[in-house]
């Protein structure tokens, strides 16, 4: 077990290191303006407080990791985006592949298995649940055994095998037996989910690790002196990482047309070929990446810290337990400095800073616990809104194509936020901290559900079949009879959810990376992603309510739930929000106790 003895200069002490003499001196009598910021390159407290903060440039290796995520997400969305029609709708008249004949493509809907809306929803929900459970396994294996790079490479092979199985089960020969094809789909979902989840847990922290810059001053060509901020650089990194995710989703637009025009085996084959880029790009950048080797996880020590801290805090009185758990001195009993050498427990091999890191990690995980409500609302654009679109006037647009407006809006809006909105807010002195951003994200996703509920109400009213099942309204020849509403009207919820994701989902990735100890980053990121699995489990329990005739009430309920959760979230973490700057400084110094945890930073190998 690693000895976490701290040999650095704790933030709590009034010590500084001067650049001239390179030694520690007492600063009790020194002016605060002369104190250098911890882990900086000569930035004083006064400069930190008064100069404008800007993000640093990202290294090339970060862009390589972003490309890996782009290719993997193209593959993921290139399959899951067309699951709704593939499972729900039957083969179109005369089709053996799921494709719609040329004469009826204007409002025709591709299909294959014909299992209906409820079965389609159940399988798609299980797929989401599984894909966001497996990151926990990938995170633990990366932190303890393989490292992030090797874990991504190993599970790339697993994921590719799953995609090949999916292609095989969607051939005309397989679709001749819809029940057998559905079992093949479920098996491929299990294999692909295992691979995709393990990759997902590790790509996110891997891109964050590529930047190793410190707080420093820089003079711009205009003559302005600014602060190059690692915190803003991490924020920008995850903005563009999320853009890569959504560029991949936009690339998957082709899947809807391929399924409608050429059938499902072709539609699934294209993303399978795209996925081969993942191991290729990872192998190409192997000698350039900044990699954190596996050193064993600190999960056991973390559990022990929480156990020592909570000992004696529990009571049969819930109010008393809550007060004790929220007390400012909650973590004191886990700090070695509060024990004499003779009384210190033998298993207490960490230092006080490690306890501070655990405290920060626990607080971050508590933040993530609100996200299942956010993802419940998001899940509606992942399938149910495709059913909504199927009851509208398509005019040659595949109904499951519309959901790509979500990633398109994200890709368009991210540069606006990163280059204009956020810098403008900083210039005005507004600290748009992670907690505030997440709160606003909840508000936007709730607004999206209100829009969807109102739209669905009008579709019910205008559908030729007044049975509250407009997507199933057909004529005597089994061809669709849509409501006279242009399908592009459904764009609103996709765009509003996209804005909500920029505020909340991107911030959760940033929060998970910045608040986790070095050896727990993959696990903490996986925990943040696990909230999607919890959301899917809740959604699965609500399967009977995900029927088309109940959509208005379903969307409206999720809107109310998102807004209530958002306000409770902000109220719960208001104090944590004010301590954001202090939390980001915990564990950023070069502590000797963590020397063996630092990434391999051979600068001659860096790009």
At the fold tier of CATH, the topology name of the largest domain is Growth Hormone, Chain: A
Number of H- or I-type helical stretches: 23
Q: How large is the share of residues in beta strands?
A: under 5%
Rg for CA atoms: 26 Å
End-to-end Cα distance: 34 Å
Unreliable stretches (pLDDT < 50, length at least 5) are: 1-30, 589-607
Any idea what the CATH superfamily of the largest domain is called?
Answer: MFS general substrate transporter like domains
How would you describe the shape?
globular
Q: How would you state the average pLDDT, rounded?
A: 83
Q: Order the strands across the largest sheet as they lie in space.
A: 3-5-6-4
CATH architecture of the largest domain: Up-down Bundle
What is the number of E strands?
A: 8
Write the layout of secondary structure elements.
Blueprint: E1 15-17, E2 24-26, E3 40-41, H1 45-50, E4 52-54, H2 60-80, H3 83-88, H4 116-146, H5 148-169, H6 172-175, H7 178-209, E5 215-219, E6 225-228, H8 230-251, H9 253-262, H10 264-275, H11 277-284, H12 299-310, H13 318-326, H14 352-368, H15 371-378, H16 384-390, E7 392-393, H17 405-427, H18 434-462, E8 483-486, H19 491-515, H20 521-541, H21 551-572, H22 574-578, H23 580-585
Helix pairs in contact: 2-7, 2-8, 2-10, 2-11, 4-5, 4-7, 4-20, 5-7, 5-10, 5-11, 7-20, 8-17, 8-19, 9-10, 14-19, 15-20, 15-21, 17-19, 18-19, 18-21, 19-20
Keywords: Membrane, Transmembrane, Transmembrane helix
Protein name: Major facilitator superfamily (MFS) profile domain-containing protein
Family: Belongs to the major facilitator superfamily. Proton-dependent oligopeptide transporter (POT/PTR) (TC 2.A.17) family.
């Amino acid at each position: 077990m690693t000895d976490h003895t701290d040999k650095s200069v704790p933030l709590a002490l009034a010590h500084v290191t001067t650049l001239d003499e390179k030694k520690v001196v007492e600063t009790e009598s020194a002016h605060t303006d002369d104190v250098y910021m911890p882990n900086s390159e000569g930035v004083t407290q006064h400069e930190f407080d008064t100069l404008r903060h800007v993000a640093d440039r990202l290294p090339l290796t970060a862009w390589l990791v972003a490309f890996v995520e782009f290719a993997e997400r193209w593959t993921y969305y290139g399959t899951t985006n067309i699951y709704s029609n593939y499972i729900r709708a039957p083969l179109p008249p005369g089709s053996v592949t799921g494709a719609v004949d040329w004469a009826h493509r204007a409002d025709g809907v591709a299909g294959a298995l014909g299992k209906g809306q409820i079965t389609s929803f159940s399988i798609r929900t299980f797929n989401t649940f599984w894909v966001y459970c497996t990151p926990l396994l990938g995170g633990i294996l990366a932190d303890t055994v393989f490292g992030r790079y090797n874990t991504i490479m190993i599970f790339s092979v697993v994921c590719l095998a799953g995609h090949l199985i999916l292609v095989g089960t969607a051939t005309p020969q397989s679709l001749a037996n819809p029940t057998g094809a559905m079992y093949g789909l479920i098996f491929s979902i299990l294999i692909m989910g295992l691979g995709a989840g393990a990759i997902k847990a590790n790509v996110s922290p891997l891109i964050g690790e590529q930047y190793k810059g410190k707080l420093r001053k820089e003079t711009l060509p205009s003559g302005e002196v600014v602060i190059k901020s690692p915190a803003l650089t991490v924020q920008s990194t995850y903005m563009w990482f999320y853009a890569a995710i959504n560029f991949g989703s936009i690339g998957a637009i082709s899947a809807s047309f391929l399924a409608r025009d050429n059938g499902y085996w072709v539609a699934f084959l294209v993303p399978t070929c795209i996925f081969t880029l993942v191991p290729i790009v990872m192998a190409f950048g192997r000698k350039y990446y900044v990699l954190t080797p596996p050193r064993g996880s600190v999960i056991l020590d973390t559990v022990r810290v929480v156990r020592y801290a909570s000992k004696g805090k529990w009571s049969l009185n819930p109010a008393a337990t809550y007060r004790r758990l929220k007390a400012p001195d909650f973590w004191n009993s886990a700090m070695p400095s509060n024990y004499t050498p003779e009384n210190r427990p033998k298993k207490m091999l960490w230092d006080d800073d490690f306890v501070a890191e655990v405290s920060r990690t626990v607080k971050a995980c508590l933040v993530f616990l609100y996200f299942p409500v956010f993802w419940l609302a998001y899940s509606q654009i992942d399938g149910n809104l495709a059913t909504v679109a199927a009851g509208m006037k398509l005019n040659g647009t595949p109904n499951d194509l519309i959901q790509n407006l979500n990633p398109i809006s994200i890709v368009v809006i991210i540069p606006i936020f990163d280059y204009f909105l956020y810098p403008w807010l900083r210039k005005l002195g507004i600290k748009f901290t992670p907690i505030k951003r997440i709160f606003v994200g909840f508000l936007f996703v709730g607004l999206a559900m209100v829009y969807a509920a109102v739209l669905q109400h009008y579709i019910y009213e205008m559908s030729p079949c007044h049975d509250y099942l407009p997507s199933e309204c057909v004529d005597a020849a089994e061809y669709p009879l849509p409501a006279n509403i242009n399908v592009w009207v459904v764009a609103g919820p996709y765009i509003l959810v996209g804005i909500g994701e920029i505020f909340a989902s991107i911030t959760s990735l940033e929060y998970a990376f910045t608040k986790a100890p070095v050896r727990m980053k993959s696990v903490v990121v996986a925990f943040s992603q696990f909230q999607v699995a919890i959301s899917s489990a809740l959604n699965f329990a609500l399967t009977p309510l995900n029927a088309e005739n109940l959509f208005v009430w379903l969307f409206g309920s999720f809107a109310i739930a998102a807004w209530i959760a958002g306000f409770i979230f902000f109220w719960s973490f208001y104090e944590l929000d004010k301590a954001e700057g202090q939390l980001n400084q915990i564990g950023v110094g070069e502590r000797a106790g963590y020397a063996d945890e630092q990434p391999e930073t051979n600068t001659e190998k860096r790009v």
